[in-house]
Each structure stands twice: as C-alpha cells, then as structure tokens.
Automatic annotation (TrEMBL), chains A, B:
Belongs to the D-glutamate cyclase family. It comes from Orbilia oligospora. GO terms for biological process: glutamate metabolic process. It holds the Pfam family D-Glu_cyclase. The lineage of its organism: Eukaryota, Fungi, Dikarya, Ascomycota, Pezizomycotina. It comes from the Eukaryota. InterPro entries: D-Glu_cyclase, Putative_hydro-lyase. This is DUF1445 domain-containing protein.
Length: 345, 345
C-alpha cells in the first residue's frame, strides 16, 4: 500500500497559514487549488436548530458527506487550522435566505454570521486528485484546468430529520485497465469520498446519469469529453450536502462556499498520535495545538485506532505547517490516516 | 428526547448469559427474539483475505451495515459478551462454499471455522422493535408473530473492494400521522439502522419496491398486509451485507446465521464510560470486562464522545447482565448511546 504522505512534486507557493492570511486580506480571490500543501474542505453554515439533523445526515451518508469538523453554536473558528476564521478565509461565499440564493461570490460573511450559526466542514476530493496525478493518473479536467463534471444521481441519501435528497457525484474518466489502481489510490482517502461508487457505462446507467453524459450535460462544473478508450468513473461529491440543504428549504440564513469552484483551505498538516494508555498529555512539539471536542470523532476514525491498540485512546495533535517545514521527520507517524499530510521525506 | 434505556414491560426468561449457554447446549433451536434483554446481531464469517474490504463496506454503508464488532483472524470469541463462542451460540447457521449455500440450519460451525476466518457482527433491528412496541407502535409483523418483510431495493451500496450490491430494507407499515414519532424513536438506534430511509407509497416507488409489495411478494421474511389507512416505512436491513457477500461469489467458506429468521444473541448490557483524560484504568465493577481492540470504534462513535469532552478518551466497559440485575443504578451513564441497554431505573 502506498504511503498516504504525499511527496509533492512541486513546492506550493504559500504555507496554508500564509494562504489564509492572504485570502482574509482579499489578496487572493480565485480557487485555492494547488496554492498550498493542505487538505481542503466544503463549508456549510446553518442555523443551530438544524445542526443535529445535518450532523446525522453526514454520519448516515459518509461517502458523499464526510464530516471533518463542526463548530459550537456561534463559533467561527476551526480547530483544524491555527488562527482561522470561517467567515473570511475562503475567497468566495454564497448566502441563502429561506432556501433562496440571495448573494453570490461574497468575499466574506462577517455580516451574515450570527451567534446562532454552526459551521460544518466536509471533506473534498482535492487530496486524491493530487495523489492520482502523482501516480500518472491525472484526471482530464485537471489536465485541462477545468472544474470536475458533477451530476445529481438517482441514489437517495439516507434521510436524517429535515434532510433528504440524492447523491451528487463527481466524474473523471479512465481506461478500464486503470480503474483497479484508481480505486486503490482513492480508496485510502476515507474522509474525501474514498473509492468510486460506480464506474463504466453500466455504472452510469445504474446511477441515472448516462443520458446526461451522452448529451454533453453537467449539473455542476464543466463538461469534459470522455475519450473513446475511456469510461466514466464516479465518486461521492461534497456538493451533495449543499444540494440537500438547498432542497430542504431551511428557514433562515444558510451560507456556503461557491460550489464546484472555490474550496476552503483550512486544513493544515495534521498529525494523529495514537498511543496506548497511558498517554502523554503534552508532547513537546512547538506550535502543537490540541484538538478539542469539536473535531469529529470520525476524523480519527475508521482505520487505525481500534485495530492496533488495546483501548480507545487518541490524542489529536495539530501541527501548523509553518512549524515543521524544516523538520521533515515529524509527520511520519500514522500512515493509515489520510489526514496525515506532510512534507514527506 | 426519550431515554434510550428501555424499561422492559415484562421480564425476559433468561439472562443473556444463560441464553447463550442454553443455545450452546442445544436446548434452544428457534428464534431468540424476546428471550433475553439484549441487543442482537447479524453474523457473517469470512476468509481473512476479504476482511478489510468487508469492513470498508460496512464503514461506507453504515445504515444497512452497522458494524458492531469484528474478530481477529481465527478468533471466535466476542468481546461484547462474556464466555461467548461465535461457533456455537446461535441456534442456526448457514454455510456457503465458493458462493453456494452448502449447508442450512446447522446447529454449530465448529468444523467449518478455521484459523483463517474473521467474524463480523452487524446491528439488528430487534432493539428498536421493543421501543416501538413500548411506544404503542408495535409493528404488524410483531403483533402477528411473523418475520418482518424484506425487500432488495434499487439503491446501490457504496462499493468497497470486492464488494458491491444493493440495499436490502425491512418494511413495517404505519399511519402517516405516526411516522414522525416512528422516525424519532428509531432514529436513536444509530447502530441498528437508525431512522427509516424511505416511507409512503412514493418512497416505495423511489426505492423500487412498490410493485413487489402490491403483488404481495417479499424477497425475505413473510408478506404482511398493509391496512388501508397505513403506508409502508422502510429501514436499512442487516440482510444487506449477507446478500452482498453471497453476490460477490467469494472463494472459500463463508458462514452466517439463518437470514431473516434467527439472530445472534451475543450482546449483553453494555455500558460505555466516557471520561475526560486522565481516565481511571480499572473501575472496580464486579464482572466488568474491558473491551479490547476489536470492538469497532464506531460502536462508541457518533454521538457523545466528541461533543462532550475535550479529548477522545473512552473506556468501554462491558458488564454482564447477570452481575447487575440487582443494581439497577449502574447502567444510567450514557443516555446518548444506543448500546446502553439495561434494566432502567
């Protein structure tokens, strides 16, 4: 199994900390893709009365809606990045009122965010696109510098309270012989939609999107031609919860990033120290910020904790990228986690 | 929100410990439903080479396939019950070889279980049926003492390695006015399929089972008539992984309980002690058995840990029912967990 710590082929222009600062100051207004060595995320901000149902929607639909973090009521900081502000650190926001889009491409949501809002961060496929590229499997949309094609399918979400809807998928095309490797690589990105949910023209038919592709249509993103020797491959997509939220016609003000176009760049290199009991409370890492209660347990979930240690102890330590660009050995601790991003060795 | 600790209206005949002993000795050969005050589970036993993919299948499809526990390679004990043996403690087993059913209703799988097998326990709806009954919402199948009707839907599972397939649902009918309450009650049983995934005739159409119901058919279980003033309501069903396993035509010997008919009764009253760091390693509870690494992290997952405490520490303490039938106060610790079964107050 390839290590999940990516050896970046080119150095990013900024640390994620610098990038957030620049976005906040309005110096970057476009897509953050490729600008920093970080996980990125979809943002949804909801009135607090919908928070429980929305969290359940994510937990019941982890493939299209992988929940990374949610804030306390009124709190606009993220524990997955130092000094971050969810109201200002994304280049473009959308604002909805009573289910209708009332403001598009806002540069911040300082005026809209109230003490009653809860922010949710949902995994995005940025991470596995980089890995695909480095395996010689760069998707056509990425090569052509276009947005990935996205389709609303016929697959119903598992309902949760006020929320229901259908899966949205992103589509990238591959030669049939490459699909096993594509499945293997992306399957490791548990919190960024994981392996594909369908592939091939038969798969396209099954999830109800074949005709749209044949007609050259997309529901979101850009249409990208499929070469004759390739077939479509479909992943769960982080636009799913945004569509579910819009279709649920929630009362009040809802906010999001601009779908299919701009993604949050909150996530710094994150290291998970998994230790059997007793655990050291304060490993002396300069700049380490202990993850607090609000980082979703699933973030440290699935793979490693229970299969390797006798009790369920874990400390999540978040280390700002800026602190360890010179100490490359620091972040080679938990190869099973896809949140272990770092500078490799 | 109603407490999840059930106040049983009638005393069960046996403790779950006694029940397992009786099943092991061959004194009980039928359904275990109602015989003990325990969670029950679906069992699937696979050659170890399929274990990783199957675990991912469960984690990617938590509503139909809620993973409760899986064993180490070759280990036939469950940490969710004392002195249990997965090879003998279910009244009836099925055995498959290379994808074909080769033996049905076996009383044990002592000869078939090898050092290379891994056992998986999947949540079952027994728990919420009791809660529905106690809320005056007993399903018709339960009233008539019939097996719940089950249908294979058109909803594709999120694929995982060698596994793919479609959701199986269980169906119970309700008056439309009762559906919100039914959703609320069952929604708390996160590891037993949770709230319904579809309801009403429109829902039946959407998931592709309307015509089968109208024709009086079932895929598993017994057909149960729907009164004129009621509509069908559908839950994810623990037969889903069993069908996926069969359809994947695995090489080697696969074992399960008899689907739709007999369920495991391994689960004793389980208490999760969630404590902020530092945690006490050995609370002095007579009979307490510490949960070891193999209890799935998701079992203690979703609801409470991260929302209530600053770090991710949890000790899972399993307390045999026999030890606290006289100390009813012991098990009122974590109302958010649906694994907190106990004798109430």
């Amino acid at each position: 199994m390839p290590a999940l710590i990516t050896n970046y082929s080119s150095e990013p222009e900024y640390s994620s900390y610098e990038l957030r600062q620049k976005i906040r100051r309005g110096e970057i207004k476009g897509s953050t893709s490729g600008l920093a060595r970080t996980m990125q995320a979809n943002l949804i901000v909801l009135p607090s009365r919908y928070a429980k149902d929305f969290r359940n929607l994510c937990l019941r639909n982890p493939v299209p809606c992988p929940l990374l973090e949610y804030t306390s009521r009124g709190d606009y900081t993220s524990r997955l990045a130092l000094d971050s502000d969810l109201r200002t650190d994304i280049p473009a926001y959308n604002v909805f009122k009573d289910g209708k889009l009332v403001s598009r491409r806002k540069s911040n949501i300082m005026d809209e965010w109230t003490d009653d809002h809860v922010g949710f961060l949902i995994g995005c496929s940025y991470s596995f696109e980089t890995a695909l590229k480095e395996a010689g499997l760069e998707p056509m949309c990425s090569k052509k510098n276009m947005a990935v094609p996205m389709y609303v399918t016929n697959i119903p979400l598992n309902s949760a309270g006020v929320f229901s809807g259908y899966y949205v998928v992103s589509m990238r095309s591959y030669k049939p012989c490459d699909i096993p490797r594509v499945r293997e690589i992306t399957g490791q990105y548990i919190k960024q939609h994981g392996e594909p949910i369908a592939w091939g023209w038969e798969g396209a038919e099954k999830i109800g999107v074949k005709r749209k592709i044949e007609m050259g249509l997309v529901d979101f993103g850009d249409f990208v031609d499929i070469p004759d020797d390739e077939v479509p491959v479909f992943w769960g997509c982080g636009v799913t919860p945004q569509v579910a939220v819009q279709e649920s016609r929630l009362k009040g003000v809802v906010m999001s990033h601009l779908p299919g176009y701009v993604y949050a760049s909150f996530f710094d290199s994150i290291t998970l120290y998994i230790q059997p009991f007793p655990v050291t409370a304060s490993p002396s890492i300069p700049g380490a910020a202990y993850a607090q209660s609000r980082i979703d347990q699933d973030t440290i979930g699935a793979n490693a904790v229970t299969s390797r240690f006798p009790l369920f102890f874990a400390v999540v330590v978040i280390v700002e990228e800026k602190f360890f660009t010179s100490s490359k050995s620091l972040i080679r601790i938990c190869p099973q986690f896809n949140v272990c991003h770092g500078s490799g060795s």
